[in-house]
Design brief:
This protein has a two-stranded antiparallel ribbon with strand order 1-2. The longest helix has 17 residues, at 100-116. Helix 2 runs antiparallel to helix 5 (54-66). The protein has a domain at 2-85: Arc Repressor Mutant, subunit A. It contains eight helices and two strands. The protein is elongated, with a radius of gyration of 26 Å. Mean pLDDT is 81; it is low at 1-14 and 131-137. It has helices at 2-11, 16-23, 26-37, 43-48, 54-66, 86-96, 100-116, 125-136, and strands at residues 70-75, 78-83. The protein is mainly alpha-helical. Strand 1 (70-75) and strand 2 (78-83) form a beta hairpin.
Length: 141
């Protein structure tokens, strides 16, 4: 069965826009998380774990199938739904992986910049007490 899924993944690629649209909804993300925990579920099994109606789950599954994030396979009389990680990997490679080095450089530059900041002036004990008293007074109308 795994070979069939792999062949299906290679044969079809989803539009990036459809994948982002599918991921935009928290219910669809929860559905994907549910399939990640227990792949190959029927509609009834999926419905048991989500706070949605059967009709709502069916609607969300349709969008996930359209985005190729879920692949339905018939096993006898049962329609099993499988998570397809290929579109997520494509997004990761296209949008996240290429920015990893730049993010690390930016964080490194930020750290160096923060380290080079001059410390704020310190106040004497008497001035510090006045400032803390001033800022801790409640506002009265």
């Amino acid at each position: 069965m795994l070979a069939l899924i792999c062949n299906h993944l290679v044969a079809y690629s989803s539009s990036v826009n459809e994948v982002f649209k599918a991921l935009a909804d928290p219910n669809r993300r929860a559905l994907l998380d549910q399939l990640h925990q227990n792949n190959g579920q029927t509609l009834n099994q999926i419905c048991r774990h989500l706070p949605l109606t059967r009709q709502g789950v069916t609607k969300h599954l349709g969008l996930l199938i359209k985005a190729d994030l879920v692949v339905p396979l018939w096993h006898g009389r049962e329609k099993l739904h499988y998570l397809n990680p290929a579109p997520l990997k494509q997004i990761s490679e296209r949008w996240l992986d290429k920015h990893k080095a730049a993010c690390l450089r930016a964080l490194n530059d930020l750290t160096k910049g923060l380290d080079n900041l001059k410390p704020e002036p310190t106040y004497g004990e008497e001035e510090s007490e006045v400032l803390s008293w001033t800022f801790s007074m409640p506002h009265r109308r």
